[in-house]
Amino acid sequence: MEIISNEKKKLSRQSSSFRLRSPSLNTLRLQRIFDLFDKNNDGFITVEELSQALSRLGLNADISELKPTIESFIKQDETGLRFDGFEALHKTLDESFFGGDLECDGSPDSDLEEAFNVFDEDGDGFISPLELQKVLKKLGLPEAGEIEHVEKMIVSVDSNHDGRVDFFEFKNMMQTVLVPSS
Q1: Which of 15, 73, 97, 149 could be joined to 89 by an S-S link, Cβ 3.0–4.6 Å?
Q2: How far is the CA of 57 from the CAs of 61, 138, 157, in angstroms?
Q3: Going residue by residue through the chain (182 aa), what tens digit of pLDDT does each one get?
Q4: Helix-helix angle 63-71:47-56, to 10 degrees
């Protein structure tokens, strides 16, 4: 019981950006996260894949402690979590660690601010190339390999040409990505 209490304290100190709040985007975000964690693209996330992904995000957990919880969401005769099991695991963990009481107004801006804060690691209101590179590395994405490539990513959305992405530039970029063009 003390382990869970310590984990709750630890998670509550961490950025709330790991909590997915907007119901309209939860499924899309979770699917993207699922796809990133499913390293071999077999449609399953194994305990090992989930443990590795959490470690890359700086959320080191003992695999022996994770295994029973994760396995309780794996269907009989399957080798890992399918997306529906991953989604159920997320919901259960959110309720366990955060009480399921989401302190969010549900507005699109609050959801975007939450996402922005994942990248704005130093909290200065801007995403620098180095911050973007760090997050891309944590996620194991190949785009993080060369800073020149990351800088080009920043330039592609940096409308005021200051070499960083502010919230409004981030919001414009996300609206372009999330709203299908007609």
Answers
A1: 73
A2: 11, 5, 25
A3: 444 444 444 444 343 444 444 554 567 777 888 888 888 999 999 988 888 887 777 677 778 887 888 888 898 889 899 999 988 888 777 666 555 544 444 555 666 787 888 888 888 999 999 999 998 888 778 888 899 999 999 999 899 999 999 988 888 887 765 544 44
A4: 130
